[in-house]
Write a structure and sequence with these properties.
The complex is a heterodimer of chains A (158) and B (709). Chain A has 158 residues and is an alpha+beta fold. Chain A contains 5 helices and 5 strands. Chain B has 3 domains: 186 residues, Aldehyde oxidase/xanthine dehydrogenase, molybdopterin binding domain (Aldehyde Oxidoreductase, domain 4), CATH 3.30.365.10; 147 residues, Aldehyde oxidase/xanthine dehydrogenase, molybdopterin binding domain (Aldehyde Oxidoreductase, domain 4, 2-Layer Sandwich); 305 residues, Aldehyde oxidase/xanthine dehydrogenase, molybdopterin binding domain (Aldehyde Oxidoreductase, domain 4). Classes of the chains: A alpha+beta (158), B alpha+beta (709). At the A-B interface, helix 1, helix 2, helix 3, helix 4 and helix 5 of A face helix 5 and helix 16 of B. Bound molecules: FE2/S2 (inorganic) cluster (2 copies).
Amino acid sequence: MARFTIRVNRNELSTESPPDRPLLDVLREDFGLTGTKYGCGEGQCRACTVLIDDQPTASCLTTISSVDGMSVTTIEGLASGDQLTALQQAFIDMEGAQCGYCTAGMIVEATALLKRNPKPSRTEIVDAMNPHLCRCCGYRNILASVELAARRSEAGDA
Amino acid sequence: MPERFREDLCEPDRKELAEGPAYRFEMDRREWISSIGAGLLVTAAGKVVFSPGGASAQVRSSHRLHLGEDGSITVLTGKVEVGQGSRTEILQAAAEELRVPPGAVQVVLADTAETPNDGSTAGSRTTPSTIPVVRRASASARELLVRTAAETWNLDASELRVEAGAVVRAGNRFSYADLARTKRLEATVDDNVPKGVPLREVRNWTVLGQALPKVGAREIVTGAHRYPSDITRPNMLYGAVLRPPSYGAQLESVDLTPGRELGAMAVRDGEFVGCAARTSFEARKALKVISETARWRRAAHPSSEGLGAYLKRHAQSSAGGRRGARRRESGDVDGALAAAQTLEASYEMPYVQHAPLEPRAAVAEWDGDRLTVWTGTQRPFGVREQLAEAFRLSADKARVVVPDTGGGFGGKHTGEVAIEAARLAKAAGKPVSLRWTRAEEFAWAYFRPAAAFEARAGLRGEKIVAWDFTAYNPGTAAIETPYAVPNVRTRYFPCDSPLREGSYRGIGATGNNFAREIFMDELAGVVGLDPLEFRLANLDDERLSAVLRAAADRFAWSTSRALGRNRGSGIAAGFEKGSYIAICAQVRVEEGSIEVERLVSAFDCGAILNPGNLRAQIEGCVIQGLGAALSEEIRFAGGKLLNGSFARYPLPRFRGTPPIETVVLNRPDVQSAGAGETPIIAVAPALANAVFAATGRRVRSLPLGARQA
Ligand code: FES
Ligand code: FES
C-alpha cells in the first residue's frame, strides 16, 4: 500500500492503494467517479477512456502508480457547471447514445481528437474512434455527433 | 380500419428461460420457520406466489400513473430501459394523452416495489403492449380530470377543453395540480376511472411521432447516470465469484482461508464460492488465491466442431409441451413435391454472444430479512421471483430495481448476478456490488442458440407449390414461411444444447429467416428469375412486398446486381413480431474477406412513435447483425470457450461499418410494433446472397467470413 495523489478534474485527490491497482478502479471506487466505465479490462473496448495529461488512455490498463502526480480528466470533468461541451450537446442532439454505456469513452476520446484536429475528416474520426466499441452499434450516430460538434465549434470560432 | 395487432405472432419464443434459479443454497431452518410463522404463502414446490391479491397484497405495485398535488406527473411501468428507447416513448405516450408537454412527465421504470408488473422487456412487446396501456391510463386520467372540473363548475364536460396540463373554459383554468388537490386523485387511476376513453388519433399526435431526444441523455453525456454497476451504498463492498474451470465441472473442495488471510470476506454455500472486500481489486486478489486451492471434477463436453451434426443427433423428438418439438402441416406436401421440380439444401449457424457493453452487475443490500437488489435485467419481476426462491423470501421481502442499463439485446433475462450479490451481501452483513468480468459475461451468460436447418421445396414454373422446412434448435420465431405456398410442412426440434442458451434480438427468427431467405435465393436461381421478382411472385403479403420494393428502389436493385468479379448484391426480407424488413446489400469479396460496400434497409413497423429513436434502433440492429453474419461465432472445446474475449471475438466497429440507408415506411393506419429486433433477421441472408452474387459460391452457414474462405 502506498499513498498516491492525482489531479482529477482539477481537484487534488489522494488515496491509499496497492501500486498495481487500475486507475479505473481508483476513480470509480475511491473517488466515486463512476462515469468512467468498465467494459473488458483488457484494452479492447475503451469504455474506460480518460485523459491523462490530455492523452486519451485506457484507465483499465493504467496502474495508479504510473499516474501519480499527473492530471486526469474524466467525463465528469468536461462540462463547466451546467454548460455542456459542444460534443456533449451534439451527442444529445444526434441520438449519439443508445444505452449510453460507451458514451463517456467516446466523448472523452473525441474531445482529445477535436482538440488536436478541430476539423477532422470522416476517415480521421473513424481512425481515432475505431478502438471504441459500441455494442448498441450506434456508430453512425456517434460519427454524426462528432461531426456536428466539429461544425458547431468551427462556426462558434469563426 | 386499423389492422388488429396479431398477438399470436408475438408469442414468446420457446427458447425463453427454460431453467430454474442459478443456485440452490443450503436451507437455513430458522428462516424457513419464520417465513411460515409470518403467514407468507410458499407453495409446495418452494415457490412464492406473486398474485396481486394474494401473498403480495402489501406490495404496492399497482400504480400506473401518479398525479401529484404539486403538479408532478409520474408514469410507472415495469419495463426497463436498456438503450432501446422505452423510457422516452413511454413518456411520449403519457404526455400525448394527458395533453402536457413531454417535460412535465416523469417515468419510473422497473422497480418491483413501485411499478406494475409489465412482464419482461422482450419480444418487442413494449411498443404494442405497454405503450397502449400507458396511453389508455393517461387518457382515462385526463377524462377523470375533465369530469372533476365539470362537476366543480357545474358544467357539461363537453364544454371544457384540455390544454397544456389544464382544463380550461373561457377564462377559467384548472391545472391538473389544482384538480389533484380537489379530489382524491393521488391513488390508482386504474380503479373507478372512465373506461374506453378514445385515444388520440395518429394524425393528431403532437408528442408521439416526434423525434424527442432521449430522456436522460444529459445524465449519460455528463457521466452522471448511474448504471447498475455504478450504484453505491454506504459501507458497500465489492464482490467476486469463483467460476468452474470448464463447463460442467463440479467443485470437490476449496479452502477459503488464503482469501480470508488477505482480509476478504469469503463464503461457500454448496457450489457457490465468492468473496467480498473493500475494493474490487482486493476481492479479485482474494478470489485468485482461493481459486488456486479449488479441486474440480471435470465433465466431458463437446466441441464446436461439427456442431450442426451434434444438434441433429441430439434433437428431442418427443412432444415436450410448449418447449418441445412441433410439427405443422397444411395441404399435401409429399404429393406436391412428387409432382414438382425440387431443390434441397441445409444450413447451419453457430452460437453467438450478446456481449452487452455493461456486463451483468448487481448491488444487493439486506435490511434484516428484506432484500433490495439494483441490477441490470430485462425481467425485474422474474428476477425478484428468482431471488425469493433462492433465499426463501416472500415476494414483499425482495425488491428489484433496474436502473437504465448498459445494453441487453435479449441477453439479460436471468438473475444470476443478483442472486450472487445477494448471497455475498448476506454473508458480509454489508451491501455488495458485483460486476461480472468480460470473460465471465462471455462464458457464463447465455448464448443465442446454435442451429441447423433442412429445407426442401417444389416448384411449378415460378411458383413454390410445396415447402418442407425443418429447424433444429433456433427457436420457433418466424419459423413459418411468409410466402404464399399451398402445401407447407414445418418441423421444429429443440436439441440438447452443449451451451446455455436463451433469448437474443429476434432469436429464432434470425436463424429461421437466414435459412429460408438463402433458400429463396437458391430457388430463384433454379427458376432463372431475379431474386426480387421471384419473391414478389410468391408473396401475397402486401406489407412484405412493399418493404422489398422500397429497399430495392432505394438501392437501385435492377442496375446493381451484376458488378463484375468479386462484387455483387443480395436481397432478403422477413416478417416478425408485427414488423417487416427488407435489406439489399452490396459486398466485395477479396482474399477471403468480405467487405460490405453499402446496405439499404426498408422497414415497416406501423405508426412511428419516435422517428429518431426508430432510426437508431434499425441501424444499430442492422450493424449488430453484420457482426453475427460476418464474424461472430463462439468456439469451444474441452468445456472452455476458445474465443471468449473482445480480442478474439470480433464485433462490429466503426471501421467496416458500411454506408447505410434506412427507408422507414410510416403506416399511421396500423398499430405500432416494436423495432429493436426484426431488422436483424434479414441481414445475414442478404449478405450470404450477395456473396453468392459476387463469387458464385453458395455459403450456407455462419459466420460468412470464416465459411466462404
Ligand atoms: S474497459 Fe478498458 S478497454 Fe475495455
Ligand atoms: S450506446 Fe450502448 S454501447 Fe454504445
